Every structure is written in structure tokens, then in C-alpha cells.
Amino acid sequence: MTQTPSKPLRRAAARPPAAPRVGFVSLGCPKALVDSERIVTQLRAEGYLIAPSYADADLVVVNTCGFIDAAVTESLDAIGEALAENGKVIVTGCLGAKSGADGGNLVAGVHPSVLAVTGPHALEEVMGHVHRHLPRPHDPFTDLVPEAGVKLTPRHYAYLKISEGCNHRCAFCIIPAMRGDLVSRPIGEVMREAEALVKSGVRELLVISQDTSAYGVDLRYRTDFVGGRPVRTRMLELARELGELGVWVRLHYVYPYPSVDEVVELMAEGRVLPYLDVPFQHAHPRVLRAMKRPASGERNIERIQAWRRTCPELTIRSTFIAGFPGETDAEFEYLLDFLREARLDRVGCFAYSPVEGASANALPGALPDEVREARQAQLMAVQAEISRERLSRFVRRTVDVLIDEIEVDEHGEMLGAIGRSAASAPEIDGCVYVKPHPGLRVGEFSRVRITSVTEHDLRGSVVV
Ligand code: SF4
Q1: Average pLDDT of the segment spanning 54-58
Q2: Closest ligand 1 atom to the C-alpha of 166?
Q3: Whether residue 168 has its Cβ less than 6 Å from ligand 1
Q4: Is the whole model's pTM more than 0.70, yes or no?
């Protein structure tokens, strides 16, 4: 979760600020973060200032998440806090699209004093509400906005959202109900954004969507123009074009369809990072069918083995749900056996948690909380050993590491750096701990010799 600002920092200034100031609270996943970046960019383009605290803001925009019940509670609490601390609040994001028990808007029902509520992906609508309640300044400082827009991530990496919505109907998910069917951005538009990001200093592009393998399906893979050349709006072409930009390109939310094989070939050629984030969620065919997962009929073990033959360096990340309604002991054991055989590099696991509005809630065989949590813990314990064993292949090798953070003590002395190799995405994977070295810089690459591993992380020293 990203939240800006997390708390009011100081009291209001004695004199009113010259330009209207908007506070911004951003909650939720990377896709919501991209929406936040677009709104913040537009606000800055129109001359609004972004306030560092509730007290400094003339109005606050809260971008919410409504994916699981815990996120709903966090979002409602954040709106309540913004109302208490500031009073003028516009709500946007996934929670804004949800209905309450009475059929009315959930947010407006809980917090009737909010100024306006929109769903996700609603830049124009949000700006309309901002203009209504806080008129735009006279002299927009458009030249103050960097060409790549205002990023909420560190300067050296950026999420690149290629589509919105999803054509699948997984039983545990309400994203299609909140965000609608798949709408892909034409490849020319995506590439223009990617090029502007690279020009502004971004070293790593993280491609995100709900289903990256489906990119362009809604446009029938329509041809668009990239630098005057005709290019089809499709995952393979996108990976190829991004691979020409000279930065790390990391693909998230890819489903194991046969079409991914050609993208893995690009990885073997070193054009995009040898990293695939494939959300399998389960392995047992009956559970996958009950989940209504895309690509559930694919032979995933064979596919993983084929990918690794094509690209031995490939890191595969995935997420799983333990304790889905009706999951038997034998089906859970089947999932553990799949993990032992697939030897995935990076794994996240959630204990199943019912999401209001999801069709899975009506399935028979709901499991008690303690069974779901015990299965999650057991899965992560099995995976911890696999992860350590997979990472051990890096020991005594020298790898490129993108430095995310330098750690210093209270005297400003460097304690070391935290970075990532090709095998780690920011926020969700382990990292590389690097011994102090004068050549280390945030946002720059270093050559690091790996000396040891833990269950999820690597440790090493700079090679000069
Ligand atoms: S693929 Fe399934 S889980 Fe992912 S967004 Fe679509 S419906 Fe939800």
C-alpha cells in the first residue's frame, strides 16, 4: 500500500498559499498507483500544488482499494481520517464503484459528507470534481511538469499500465465488476509513455495490467504506429518494442498460454528481463475450475519446463490461494506437490478470504479460518526451502543490481545498500543486500558478486 501523506504533519500555514493545494492519499495495487500518478500529474499540469499534510491542503483526494475486506476497511478509515483532519474530500478508485447493502454507493453511505465519489480509472471525472470544489489556478505552470508526468514510485523505476479491466470472471475476484471488461491502450500510446519515462531517467519498466497475455484482444490486435512504423497491439510486439529502449523490462500478470513461449525467447535473447510473474493461484484441476481461472486447462508443469529449456535464467514468480472453499486435504497436497515439482523461484500465498460480491462466497465447503491459515503457512514453509535452493545458483556469480536504497547510520556513514537483480521485482520479491562501497548510487546499476543467500534474499559485494 502506498499512502501519501500518511499523517498530518503540521498545522495550517498562517497565510493562505498562492496556488490551491490538494492533498493526495493513494491506496491499493500498482494499477491504482498508476491512476494516482495520472491524477497528480494532471493536478500539477493545471497549476495545483500537492500538499504534504492534511492541514496544508485545501481539499484531499483519496484513491481507494476495494479488493479484499481488509482493504475496504483501510480505505474507509483513510476517508474518515481525511474528513476529520481536512473536511473536503473527493473519493476515487475501486471502492468508489462498490454498492452498500442498501444498493446505494457504499462510500457515500458510510461517509455522507464526502464531496464526490468516482470509480477507478476516472481522471476526467476526478478533475471535474476538483474544479468544482477548488477552482483551478489562473496561470497553469504546465512547464513545471516533467514530460513523463509525476511519478509516485522512485525515479528509477515505473509501472507501465497497458490495459484496464479484465475479460475473465474468476470466482474470488470482483475486479471485472468494478473495472469492467478489458480495454487495452493502443501500442503507440504505451510506447510514447515508455519512451518519455526512459528519457526522464527510469531504468526499469514494470508492465502491469489484469491480464498481460490478453493485451490487445479487445482491439483485435489492431495495428498502431510506433515511431512511424506499423506495429500490432499485442504482448509479443510490445515486449519486443520495449526491449529496444535499453532499460530493464519486467512483465507482470502473464497467464501460461502458448503465446508466452515466444516472449520467453525474447528473454533468452536478453531483450527483456528473464522474469515472468504468472499468477497460477492453484494447481489442482478441480479447484482451478471452481475458481474459474483462465488457462486452467494448460499443462503448466510441461510449460514451465519448456520455458526453462528455452531460457535457463528464467525467474518465475507466482501467487497462490490456500483454503479455497471446498479444497480437500488431497487437493492441497496436490498443490504442494506441484510446487515441489515446478520449483518456482518466487511465491506469494494468501489464505482464502471472502470478498464481498465475489461468486466464490456462494460455493459450498467454506473452510475454517485456522485451516486456511495453517495451509498458507505450510505452503510458505515448503516454498521457503525451494526459494533458497533456487537462489543458491547465484552464489559466486556476479550479477547486475539496480540499487533502490542506501542505508546510513546516524552519522551519515554508509551501512550498505539494498538493490535488486533481474530475479526480483520491487515491493513483492526478496532483494540483494550489498556491502558498503563508495561507488554505490541509488537508481544506478552495480556489478555485485553474490556471496550468500537466505530464503528470499541475496548478499554480496561490489566488484570493481
Ligand atoms: S484474471 Fe481473474 S483474478 Fe485476475 S483480474 Fe481477471 S477476474 Fe480478477
Answers
A1: 88
A2: 6
A3: yes
A4: yes
